[in-house]
Amino acid sequence: MSRAAQVLHPAALAAAVVAGLLAAITMAVLHTTAARMFSILTTGRALPLVVISVLAGAAVLVLLALDKTRLTRLLAALAVTAVIWAGRSPSTRCCLPPYLTIHGAAAPAGAGVRNWSWWPFIVVLVGPSFALLYRLAQRGTLSEPGAALGHVEAAVRPGG
Prior knowledge:
Number of strands: 0
Structural class: mainly alpha
Strand content: under 5%
Oligomer: single chain
Helix content: over 70%
Distance between the termini: 21 Å
Order of helices and strands: HHHHHHHH
Radius of gyration: 22 Å
């Protein structure tokens, strides 16, 4: 296992556990606040997709725990795709009223202005990071794979 994998493996395992917990919490919330959607996801055509999602997510956790990371990305993508398809299955179309149009579901006119008003903040906060990354890449500082992980490893090491 490479140094980068040793440093990032616990974070990947923690992220997988958190994603699983959030999925379980979401199902519990759906059960209490959107019983119709919960029923659709747990019965009928959407149920096999939910089962595939749960099994793929569990497989990711097992593979990460066993330190076998080769298929984790594929299985994680399968888990997410399956649950999205479950939510978009033909049986879930009953959750929207049949008379709803795109115009009726669209946000009010002022919403676009509010969304665009965040761009200056994003440019000010993220722009300097991209400029620094570009400068380091041009100098060749980033040419060695894993060079930036030295700081991460020092922070992760006990007493570091």
